[in-house]
Amino acid sequence: MSNQDSTANQSVIATTRRRYRSVKNSRRLGRFLSNRLNVVGLLFVSVVVLSAIFAPVIAPEGPNEQDLFNRLDSPSAEHPMGTDQLGRDVLSRLLYGARISLQISLAVVAITLAIGTAVGLIAGYAGGWVDEALMRFVDILLAFPGILLALVIAGILGPNLTNIMIALAVVGWTQYARIIRGSVLSVKQEEFVKAAQLMGVPRRRIVLRHILPNVVTPVIVLATMDMAYVILGTAGLSFLGLGAQPPTPEWGTMLSQGRNFVDTAWWVVNFPGLAIMITVLGFNLLGDGLRDVLDPRDMGDVENKGM
Amino acid sequence: MLLVLVGVSILTFLLLFLTPGDPAETILRQQMGGRTPSLEAIEQFRQNEGLNRPIPIQYVDWVTDVLQGNLRESYYQETPVSTLIINRIPATLELAVAGMAVALTIAIPTGIISAVHKGKAPDYLSQFAALVGVSMPNFWLGYILIIVFSLQLGLFPVAGVGGLESLVLPAITLGSGMAAIVTRLVRSSMLEVLDEEYIDTARSKGLRERIVIYKHALRNALIPVVTIVGLQFGYLLNGAVIVEIVFQRPGLGALLIDAIFARDYPVVQGLVLVIAVIFVLTNFAVDLTYRYIDPRISFGGESA
Amino acid sequence: MEDSITRRTLLGAVGAGGFVSIAGCAGDSGDGGGNDDPYSSETKTGDGSSTDNNSSSGNNSTATGGSANVALSMDPTEGVWQVYGGVSPYYTNILEPLIWVSEEMKLEPWLATDWEATSDTTWEFTLRDSVKFHNGEDLVAEHVVWSFEQVLNEWSYAPGWLHVESGSVTAIDETTVEFETSDPFPTFPGTIAHNMIAIQHPDRSRENTEPIGTGPYQVEERTQGQRVRTSGFDDYWNGTPSLDELTFSVITDPNTRALSLQNGDVDVAFDPPKSRVEKLDSNGGTNVTTQLSPGAVYVGCNIYKAPMDDPKLRQALNYATSQSDLVETILSNIGVPAKGPVAESIFWSAHEKLPAYEQDVEKAKELVEESSYDGEALQFHLSNQQVDGELLTQALQQWFDDIGVKVDIQVTEEASFEDTVRSGEPHLILESSGTNSGAADYLIYETFHSEGDVNERLYNEEGTGIYNLGEEVDQLIQAGFQTGDQAEKEQKYEQALQRIMEEAVVVPINYSEYIVAASDGVSSMDLRPIPEMTRWTGLQTGQ
């Protein structure tokens, strides 16, 4: 892993100034939009965000309104996406579910970001034994099956949305810590940081003013993609029986609960599946787009997670 | 490296003891077909398994055993944990290799097309296609594959191990999840190589574009890809857990999940340790490969 | 194809002969047989020794050969089965106990033809003649003694469970075994009518995982975590197995199990998901059988946790619930609407005599008004292993909400679920009960007696409990548990259950049925209420 950091570091050095200079360059937006995929990603994400915001307005029914004797109805004018095992309107549940999915993703990403950034900055900037100790801890967590950690946390705290979020966050922050530490290490060598140090600028100020802005790009990209992986992770935990508590209309839980219907009441499982897919695709495309625009190369480390 | 293993094992120990659900009770209940064991039976079990002793002492005992090459026995059966793990390795290894092969099969062509036609329709299409796989929760993808390829087309068995045909669907399920990542790698690596001078040289010599791409660029582009892909093996287990459940493959992932839910502590501890060793070793191997490929790369003090 | 249609008729005719033959011991033996039950009064013929299946009636040509693959949710190669050479006696028929359990949940003479209580604490079992082990040797009393010793030494809980200590099983002669129980234990025969208490030959090998039993199929090959392949045992004492080869495969995921059947990878699949039942039944090529089991699903009310200590609230919840709606919709008509917590198939379930709480929303609302319920959300716990549990609890949540009672659902992982329940944390608990043996007494004892396992912890620590109503019910259960007389047992247990339902300690949901799906060629499946006791001897695949 270290090597990736170092390669990333080198390129970060190479691209930092260039990137920094062009922050205000509006061509960026043009470049971003010129890639159709980015537009598609933006579109997908917007659809999900809008659904979440306007769920109560658009949804034909409440997400938890049951109608046992009209369960598993196929899509119709009344229920455009059919009804589920308890006769609830699938479309309504999906719309409300968008809120929950986004909520979870945002929360997890925010927690991982906070922990990861803090640890990464401290390790990278402090160096020495602090760095050593923190990075060892990261190594340990990385070598640890995330699923076990998540299961134990869900087990101890009881499976519900908050605890799923904690579980995914505990598993997820290490990547940020590594990337940020790597970036900090390389930025630290930069002339302007050294200069600031010599001028007696306080450490906190150096970190905030000079280092943080320089490591922001990979983190933004990683965070965007993480939004996607959190949703997939929730679905995976649901499959293992550790999903959101019923009747929460969480997509992963809906998908997992409906998994026996793939070829019978296909709407019960495939619509939540599609919702997840579109969202994950959207965030991934967005992340790719951001990366290309902000930093076309060397984001190899920003990869692969999920359960 | 040793530190990581010690850390991982301590963490496992602590986590297991934090987990609610008494192993003695859980295991005896399971053995008794769902009936709850008597307090004496529970006490007896704890006594036998040394669960009454203070946690640090239990840990030291365990480490002592492990250092003598003894991963202990499962609570449920007399089989040594090491045997259980060894029995399960082939299924997971097979799945991991096949999954990786699928990922590469998808990723290399799409990555190349993407890079060569950068910014044009084929680039967008192949990037999009590669992302579809990773965007589907893998159990859903697994069931869909079963229904289409097993039930409707009758091409593959639904589940189990043995023979290539039972490996195809699980490998696709696992591999397509990774394809997007590898495609990204291939693409960016390819773009980088295509920028290099020697490619320009080759072009200026009048070589056909196709030859330039496949002979010169690809070879160089794939080296970093393959090494980074090697690293992903460490992560494959997470995906393998679900794929192994859906396709009923007796592998390490399924074993881990069963053991966690069944509170079979020796198996969980042994397995986590083995996984950590695999992880550390792959990291180490990749580090070495890097050094070999590019001696200029220097390492910080953190080679795991 | 005579043999495929005659199973039931023959079973009726041949099978009950066994019950007649043990009638003599019934008086003292407690739950020792079907003697007092209506079934034994039917006119039966038969030789009294052959109880298994159609092909046993002296006509060995019914054997059709062929092979079948049965998909189980459990792994027959894993678990605690070293004692039996590493293969599970559940489902597989490789090993057999002294007593089997019949279609009517009665004790069925098996390797023992007869048993009798010779005193309060001694039992004499007579073994069947000319039973052969897979290695060709005859079964004698010493083998039984040896087998029990194995079990008693292997499982620390076995002596407490069976009320038998190591050393108290003795061979009186070649065909008679005496058991001395540690205290008067009238349900001893029923308790050992259990797959786990199987008889095996001392030459079986733990190390090389080689079981030697007396069953119709013997192990050929086992692949850990995948399958056990068995072949028919020609010298089986109870008919000739009709298949050459029978394989038990483990497929833990219910959906995958059903899909494997649909795909023709397996011939029989236990417990497919209910959502696939219709598909499997209407599909050309497969069909579905359901069989009533001795299990029940109900909501338990923690009567020591306010506000559930108010019977009015508990009754209100009962009036809010429509069992038949649940069975008809969520359960796809699999299972029977319940009136009590004990399966109807158990003779003392009191099903007929229990108060009926028909769904009556108005009445329920009134009761809630009168009760001490203050609007606080009740914690409703269930295990994530409970099949259809999340759907049932959500439907109940809606109904309870309709009468003004708020409920929060908490799904927990199985191991922590049991812990949470016993600590008395939840208000409501989705429970499912059942038995794997011929003795069902513990179903009522462990759940509703103050010293039963659910209540024990809190009862001893704080003098409370979970589902135990107290002294009166305890005494009724105690009396029923200790009597050997069927009628008295029935009467005591019924009284206890009536009290339990009057006080609305539970909200019954359904008596369980289990589902077995098979390809159309499969016939003569001999399902038993206890699914693990399914007989395979007569199974045919029509190939």
Automatic annotation (TrEMBL), chain A:
Record has Membrane as a keyword: yes
Membrane topology value: Multi-pass membrane protein
A cellular component term, taken from the record's GO annotations: plasma membrane
A matching Pfam family: BPD_transp_1
Subcellular location: Cell membrane
Keywords: Cell membrane, Membrane, Transmembrane, Transmembrane helix, Transport
Protein name per Swiss-Prot or TrEMBL: Nickel transporter permease
Organism: Halomarina rubra
TrEMBL record, chain C:
SUPFAM superfamilies: Periplasmic binding protein-like II
Stretches the record annotates as Disordered: 26-70
Superkingdom per UniProt: Archaea
Entries under Gene3D superfamilies matching the protein: Dipeptide-binding Protein, Domain 3, Periplasmic binding protein-like II
Domain Solute-binding protein family, chain residue ranges per copy: 106-452
Record keywords: Signal, Transport
Pfam families reported for this sequence: SBP_bac_5
Ranges of Low complexity composition bias in the record: 46-69
Any single GO CC term annotated in Swiss-Prot or TrEMBL for this entry: periplasmic space
Keyword hit for Aminoacyl-tRNA synthetase: no
Family (UniProt): Belongs to the bacterial solute-binding protein 5 family.
This protein's name: ABC transporter substrate-binding protein
The organism of origin for this protein: Halomarina rubra
Taxonomy of the source species: Archaea, Methanobacteriati, Methanobacteriota, Stenosarchaea group, Halobacteria
